[in-house]
Amino acid sequence: MNINDVSIKKYTVTDKDSAVNLGSGGLNVFGTPALVAKMEQTALEMVRPDLDANSDTVGIEINVKHVKATAIGKTVTVEAKIVNIDGRKICFEITATDEAGDVIGTAYHERFVVDKQRFMSKLQ
What we know:
The protein is α+β, with helices and mostly antiparallel strands. It has three helices and five strands. The termini are far apart.
């Protein structure tokens, strides 16, 4: 993984992604928690192939703006770009757009590379 690497993923908004289903609102539209999850998923899937079998990443920060509603059944495109790598910390700028190409959300996101066994042992 390198600075300026980009990953683009497309997601279809389903009922399970709705604000109503997620408890984050009363309208049957793409919910902010689902948007956040799709953003994190896109970033994670970008870097995972570069990790060894004993490593994974965990999200440590996400600052999201959800600026436009999206209907159930529509397609959302999420683009994650690595903007900084500082040791085990990887920083991303993420943009989500709708089918018309309009920005529906943006985020700054940080992930941290961890040793899976060591990380999980701390939770015991």
